[in-house]
Design brief:
Layout (H helix, E strand, L loop, with lengths): L4 E4 L18 E5 L2 E5 L4 E2 L3 E2 L4 E4 L2 E3 L3 E2 L4 E5 L2 E3 L1 E5 L4 E4 L3 E3 L1 E4 L5 E4 L2 E6 L5 E4 L3 E3 L7 E2 L3 E4 L3 E3 L10 E4 L4 E6 L4 E2 L1 E3 L6 E4 L5 E2 L5 E5 L2 E3 L1 E3 L4 E5 L2 E3 L6 E3 L4 E5 L2 E3 L1 E5 L4 E4 L3 E3 L2 E2 L4 E2 L3 E6 L5 E4 L3 E3 L7 E2 L3 E4 L3 E3 L10 E4 L5 E5 L4 E6 L7 E3 L2 E7 L3 E5 L2 E7 L4 E5 L2 E3 L6 E3 L4 E5 L2 E3 L1 E5 L4 E4 L3 E3 L13 E6 L5 E4 L3 E3 L7 E2 L3 E4 L3 E3 L10 E4 L5 E5 L4 E6 L7 E3 L2 E7 L3 E5 L2 E7 L4 E5 L2 E3 L6 E3 L4 E5 L2 E3 L1 E5 ...
Parallel strand pairs: 4-7, 5-8, 6-9, 7-10, 8-11, 9-12, 10-13, 11-16, 12-17, 13-18, 16-19, 17-20, 18-21, 20-22, 21-23, 22-25, 23-26, 24-27, 26-28, 27-30, 28-31, 29-32, 30-33, 31-34, 32-35, 33-36, 34-37, 35-38, 36-41, 37-42, 38-43, 41-44, 42-45, 43-46, 45-47, 46-48, 47-49, 48-50, 49-51, 50-52, ...
Antiparallel strand pairs: 1-2, 2-3, 14-15, 39-40
Helix pairs in contact: 2-4
Length: 880
């Protein structure tokens, strides 16, 4: 309780030096508007030196220097100290009432004013001791007290105005039994010791400044402000809201200590250094300088320093940062937040501090240009992290389930962890992004628009349930600007799975598709800038017809999942570096420019062109090319290389205008080359000679070769038509070995006998088994229709939480080693297996079944070692 005193002198008498039993003048003292009589014996107005212990009954007044001289002065009442110096000299002063260092005047209205008070204390010896049983007040002291030793024991309320310097080495013991109120303006308490009495608390109503306390402290804040705090290994627990550095810089040092605030903290000026200490806040922590009336933020000069390994800041509420002027140091320790995080670009979290999201419910991260160096989630495993601005994570330290509210990813390194994002995502909206999956898994249950920056697979997996679009265009428009997005797939275990469409427009930089697998369940639109011609395997794993539009783009390695169940519709170019599996395609006026069958079978339904506008390179390479339609071959070469081509229609080598040179050629020089055409074979003005030196060519219609046709070696031509066939060639053109399957009268030759060897034979009809698959789906619309109009549109099916990846049946088709159930056994499964064991997580029944290689009923370390050997190719089989 704050006391107000007005001292009035009624009697002034000559005073003498106080020796044993000497008298002092009488004074009347008003304390808290109550009159206390200070007898003449209890008034010190002259220099006094004690020669022995003394006890004063009643109130006392000190107006002069007093030297306790190692003795004890006991005042059984209140003490008013208006002037003079009290020197202890290893002595003790005990006041059973209030001790007031002040000169106060109270006017008729009850208002109290303090004038300069010439009182001061000298506690310089180790056994100096001052005990105040009730309240202690100090106002407007003119002289600086010297409190460099001894102990002050204060049992009541304390009110000081900053003119009493308590920051030296004197121990301040708050020994009250209940609540002690501390109203200390511009005052720092050094070496504070608190009573061990149960329920005793210190209530600070102004400032709370403590350095080097001698015990743990329990305090209550009544809007208190901290300017100076050095706990020196102790614990300070504060109940109530706290401000740090409100009007000037604060200096808070938690060295190996604990500061707990049961309330909110607003940090405005100065530095908080944890220094291997802990700072626990049950409410919110705000680093800001806010004008609440205008709802505006000014420069905030707060600094937070976390640079030691055991630094820990725990915030149960929100963490909010605005307009910081100085950079904080987040190079170590852990920042744990249970509430929301709101920050602007002025906070630098991109060093070594771990940011721990430990909430139980939804946490919203509204971070503008803020990078989290190390981010982990340890709260409720089902709670969601909502990003409504940027996603910037240098290193993910745990699995995370996030929700995107139109968030933009600028920086992300998964470091072998799994990040699942529900909602649409943009990569690199207005500046360069940097994403490294780094042996981790990124699941996006929505669409992705990749505008700027690099996505590096890094032996990791990315699953996108919606569309993946690489382009830079305003929503609803088609005037594409340069797009600076790139994808790097350079490692063997790189995997990107897209459940919707994949679209590329006007990329400025080349991508690196050099390894791994890119799976697409929807349509493909690529304008030629993606550079998909590396060795990355492109897997088309849709469940209905997929449309592929390639504007000058080459698919380096192409595989179709379940080719007998769905079709691939090509609407423009067919450019396939190498087939990795059979494929059933539909041509919508498509033209082949590059194709290597690689011993696989490709069936094309519909008319097809080969090299319509520029040279083509087709290598059947021991495979089979079925074309159910007509072929127009204008430019480039078809090399059979022990492969087979079957055409259910006409095959024509010609330019757009038959009168112009045609630059198409065919090469049949291997024994297993087979070329079958159910219709006509025609050639008009071929500029280059085709090479027919081996294999078999079977024609079911007429042959018209307006150019030089020379068949050599063991090449054989079979005329296998059911009706009459006409053969018309230029003079000098010959078949090497001609086989007739009907009577000679069924053929017309011009010129006659245009062969070197003629014989008749019966052959099996090469066209009797026309390949066909029956599908119930309609082809998907133009692949540009969905992603171009708005890349955020839903894909064919509304994205769910499970990305549509082809998986083995969990009961009938066990894939041993496939711990994450993605249909492939790789490093991701090894990492998942290890994490489950280290964290002592419970395996699902399916995980136990696919990981129990030694059949002992448990998925354990022995099985983990065997999986590592298998992936490293030390052993060939997981199960003996």
């Amino acid at each position: 309780m704050k006391s107000e005193i007005n001292r009035k002198l009624f009697v002034t008498a000559a005073s003498a030096v106080l020796i044993a039993g000497c008298s002092v003048p009488f004074n009347n003292v008003i304390i808290q508007n109550t009159a206390y009589a200070a007898s003449e014996e209890n008034t010190f107005s002259k220099i006094t030196k004690l020669e022995k212990d003394m006890t004063l009954e009643g109130d006392a007044v000190i107006d002069a220097d007093i030297d306790l001289n190692g003795h004890t002065l006991t005042v059984k009442g209140n003490l008013l100290h208006t002037s003079g110096k009290i020197s202890f000299g290893n002595g003790e002063m005990i006041i059973t009432g209030n001790y007031l260092m002040q000169k106060a005047e109270t006017d008729s209205s009850g208002k109290t004013a303090y004038s300069n008070c010439l009182a001061h204390l000298m506690m310089t010896d180790p056994y100096d001791k001052l005990t105040v049983e009730k309240n202690f007040e100090a106002h407007s002291l003119y002289y600086k007290s010297e409190l460099s030793n001894g102990e002050m024991i204060l049992n009541g309320d304390v009110t000081v105005d900053g003119t009493l310097n308590l920051s030296d080495d004197t121990v301040i013991s708050f020994n009250g039994k209940d609540v002690q109120k501390i109203n200390a303006s511009k005052t720092t308490f050094a070496k504070v010791r608190q009573s061990e009495s149960s329920g005793h608390v210190l209530t600070f109503t102004n400032e709370m400044n403590i350095i080097k306390p001698k015990s743990d402290i329990n305090a209550v804040s009544d809007n208190a402000v901290i300017y100076e705090l050095d706990l020196s290994g102790k614990t300070l627990a504060i109940d109530g809201d706290v401000k740090i550095g409100w009007e000037k810089d604060a200096q808070v040092d938690l060295t190996s200590s604990t500061l707990s605030v049961k309330g909110n903290v607003e940090h405005k000026n100065g530095k908080v250094t944890l220094n291997n200490g802990s700072f626990n806040i049950s409410g919110s922590y705000m680093m800001q300088n806010k004008d609440t009336e205008k709802d505006e933020y000014s420069n905030c000069y707060a600094i937070l320093c976390m640079d030691k390994p055991y630094d820990k800041l725990t915030i149960d509420g929100d963490f909010e940062v605005h307009s910081l002027y100085y950079s904080s140091d987040f190079s170590n320790g852990e920042l744990a937040v249970s509430g929301n995080i709101t920050s602007d670009h002025t906070i630098k979290l991109y060093e070594g501090t771990v940011i721990n999201l430990c909430g139980k419910d939804k946490q919203t991260i509204s971070a503008d240009s803020t990078t989290f160096a190390n981010l982990k989630v340890t709260g409720d495993p089902d709670h969601e992290i909502h990003f409504d601005k940027d996603i910037r994570i240098q290193s993910l330290k745990s699995d995370m389930h996030a929700v995107s509210d139109n968030a933009v990813i600028y920086e992300l390194d998964l470091t072998s962890m799994t990040l699942t994002i529900d909602g649409d995502v943009t990569i690199g909206k207005d500046k360069t992004a940097k994403i490294d999956l780094s042996s981790g898994t990124l699941n996006i249950n929505g669409n992705v628009e990749h505008k700027d920056g690099n996505l590096k697979a890094g032996n990791g997996t990315m699953n996108v349930s919606g569309n993946y679009v690489m382009q830079n265009v305003e929503s609803g428009k088609t005037d594409y600007q340069n797009c600076y997005a790139t994808i790097s797939m350079t490692d063997p275990y790189d995997k990107i799975n897209i459940g919707g469409n994949f679209e590329v427009n006007k990329l400025y930089y080349s991508n690196a598709f050099e390894n791994g697998v890119l799976s697409i369940a929807g349509n493909i639109y690529a304008d030629g800038t993606a550079k998909l011609n590396g060795v990355t395997k492109i897997v088309l794993n849709g469940t209905k017809t997929q449309t592929v539009t390639l504007k000058g783009e080459t698919l380096g390695v192409l595989e179709v999942k379940d080719p007998d169940k769905h079709k691939i519709k090509f609407t423009d170019d067919i450019r396939i570096g190498k087939l990795a599996g059979d494929i059933y395609a539909v041509s919508d006026n498509a033209s082949i420019y590059s194709l290597n069958l690689n011993s696989k079978t490709m069936t094309i339904e519909g008319d097809i062109g080969i090299g319509l506008e520029k040279d083509a390179s087709v290598d059947l390479s021991s495979g089979t090319l079925n074309i159910i339609g007509n072929v127009e071959h204008r430019n480039g070469k078809v090399a059979f290389n022990n492969g087979e081509m079957k055409v259910w229609g006409n095959y024509v080598l010609k330019n757009e205008d038959k009168t112009q040179n045609c630059f198409a050629t065919m090469t049949m020089k291997d024994p297993y080359d087979k070329f079958s055409v159910s219709g006509n074979l025609e050639a008009y003005k071929p500029y280059y000679n085709s090479e027919f030196s081996n294999g078999v060519m079977t024609i079911g219609g007429d042959i018209i070769w307006d150019g030089r046709l020379v068949c050599e070696g063991s090449h054989k031509t079979v005329l296998a038509g059911k009706d009459k066939q006409k053969v018309k060639m230029n003079t000098g053109s010959t078949f090497q070995n001609l086989v007739l399957t009907k009577d000679r009268s069924n053929y017309t030759f011009e010129p006659d006998e245009c062969w070197k060897s003629l014989k008749s034979d019966e052959i099996d009809d090469p066209f009797k088994d026309k390949p066909v698959i029956e599908t119930t789906d309609d082809p998907t619309d133009d692949p540009k229709s969905d992603p171009t109009s708005d890349p955020k549109d839903d894909p064919t099916d509304k994205p769910g939480k499970d990305v549509p990846i082809v998986e083995p049946d969990p009961i009938t088709d066990i894939l041993y080693g496939d711990i994450n159930n993605d249909g492939i056994v790789d490093l991701t499964d090894l990492s998942k297996f290890a994490i489950l064991l280290v964290d002592k997580c419970e395996f699902t029944s399916l995980q136990t079944k696919v990981a129990d290689f030694d059949k002992d009923g448990v998925a354990g370390l022995t099985d983990l070692a065997r999986l590592r050997q298998y992936i490293s190719k030390v052993i060939e089989n997981l199960v003996d």
